[in-house]
């Protein structure tokens, strides 16, 4: 994709419009300080980090380096490659301290001027930001009244000017950042460097992620560990409302009042290779392929020798869990579809009423939740703001919250009463795939654990279901090994204008997930429907040639819904639809009415989504690739939605 033409120079240019139309939101942030002894250049480390963080946002990117000639800034709209080309054309002087940013803006078009870093204090301060400063307008008015002029339309620049002003007043970069942080409202991760404070980066965080990477004679900051995983696996988790100052040999953390605090150290359990494409054409293709491992790893080590489930991480009083009279699953997007799948299993195994709600809806509708409600918050990133706010709301109402999350040290597990981690490994592609399967698996474990605790399933039955679950990774692998037909179909169907997806029971959320994948990756109109709902309206959409994927339950005799879905297929087939049926191996009932049949291995009804969704993921990925689209970085999206 070509880079947009320059809309500004290599330093922030002043804009005449005073309209703030670009609020910073989900972005990738990286910072590096080195001693110089190893010869490591800050630019190399920062660009390497930005490459790994680009999935967080890819509207524009920039770096600021502390050099012998003062701060040097380069920033460009467009993908990271545009910044890299600009830097290659005009290489900056050597530097061992630098910060970098890759941006996803919520409003307004990304420009060079709005890209980060933002300069202040006559170019001696540079700041990058992830989040939204909600009181920027009032702060900006205050600064403008003092004669400060603004070069961008962002809220971030306010923080840069405040930092410059506070440093003039305090002469201490850490204290200056604390002064700034205390004035800001909203969500922010900020990193700042000052030309007069060499070998030092200051950071602050509230409601937005920031992790420290601990090296030998060098230290790092990142929105997540991917920023520095190529250099160190030693990490330090920062808490809410904390300020950190890093130098090559030191890391100091305080709260916003300046009281020293201890961060929690941990070792990242994956390495740089896990965050590379490893020969696959896209991260998404790689992550789809990793799904057998994601499920197997999420199941690993969860039982004792007698086969009883052990969920050590769910450190919640057993009496509390026994008293639970309602479960509410909150999540967004794909994670919410995982919750919808889980609901069928949890209600069936535990006999506890279970609701699934989009986190942003839950938060604002006065939900009936109390001390006997167990809220399950599902999130790959652990940083989805809608889900964070819903978790906080649930806890305020007295509910206990269990987080199901893929990212250690992230906000949602930290703010929940307990966490059950999925072990899917880093998910880089914006479209969630392996995290979805791992989330469903973790929900099954939680459901079985509750059933074991409350005695709603006999131990032998739980063992049997666990054995069936353990067989799922091989079945997923079998699906992956036989998808040539789906790949071909995706190429033929690249010109489709609309694709429908039908499913029933657990097949319904699978249908919705299939539609979401196609929308976000291939920009094709797609809808997922409950197959039983078809005759209540959506069947009017069927016209000759309309592609419809149908997720079919197990054949007759084992699943009573099978014949109902076969009837639905007949109905749409009679109206000329092109029916693409996902059915169990050996299911011949569907063949007469299907244009194409994709067979998947037999699986128990409640576990079947782990195999039936895979062809739909591959279909969307292949179709997007056939259209020449960027599979890993679809337009208008970012990996974690850290704004409400
Ligand atoms: O990080 P989370 O699981 O909380 O993210 C939730 C959704 O934003 C996410 O699943 C989104 O729908 C994906 N782009 C879907 O592929």
Any overview of this molecule?
The structure is a single chain. With 644 residues, this protein is an alpha/beta fold. The chain has 3 domains: 35-268, 4-Layer Sandwich (Glutamine Phosphoribosylpyrophosphate, subunit 1, domain 1), CATH 3.60.20; 277-470, Rossmann fold, CATH 3.40.50.10490; 478-635, Rossmann fold, CATH 3.40.50.10490. It contains 19 helices and 24 strands. The strands form 4 sheets. Strands 3-2-4-1-10-9-11-14 form an 8-stranded antiparallel sheet, with helices on one face. A 6-stranded antiparallel sheet has the order 5-6-7-8-12-13. Strands 16-15-17-18-19 form a 5-stranded parallel sheet, sandwiched between helices. Helix 17 links the parallel strand 20 (498-503) and strand 21. The radius of gyration is 26 Å and the shape is globular. It binds 5-amino-5-deoxy-1-O-phosphono-D-mannitol. 5-amino-5-deoxy-1-O-phosphono-D-mannitol is lined by residues 332-335, 379-381, 384, 387, 430-432, 520, 640-641.
Give a brief rundown of this model.
The protein is α/β, with parallel strands linked by helices. 34% of the residues lie in helices and 22% in strands.
Mean pLDDT equals 91
User: What structural class is derived from the secondary structure elements?
Assistant: alpha/beta
> Ligands bound here?
5-amino-5-deoxy-1-O-phosphono-D-mannitol
Widest sheet, order of strands: 3-2-4-1-10-9-11-14
Q: Largest sheet, described in full? A: 8 strands, antiparallel
What would the principal axes of the Cα set say about the shape? globular
CATH homologous superfamily classification of the largest domain: Aminohydrolase, N-terminal nucleophile (Ntn) domain
Strand percentage, roughly?
15-25%
Count the domains: 3
Low-pLDDT sequence parts: 6-24
State the helicity in percent bands: 25-40%
Number of strands: 24
* CATH overall fold name of the largest domain: Glutamine Phosphoribosylpyrophosphate, subunit 1, domain 1
Distance between the termini: 30 Å
Discrete helix count: 19
Per CATH, the architecture of the largest domain is 4-Layer Sandwich
- Highest-level CATH class of the largest domain: Alpha Beta
CA radius of gyration: 26 Å
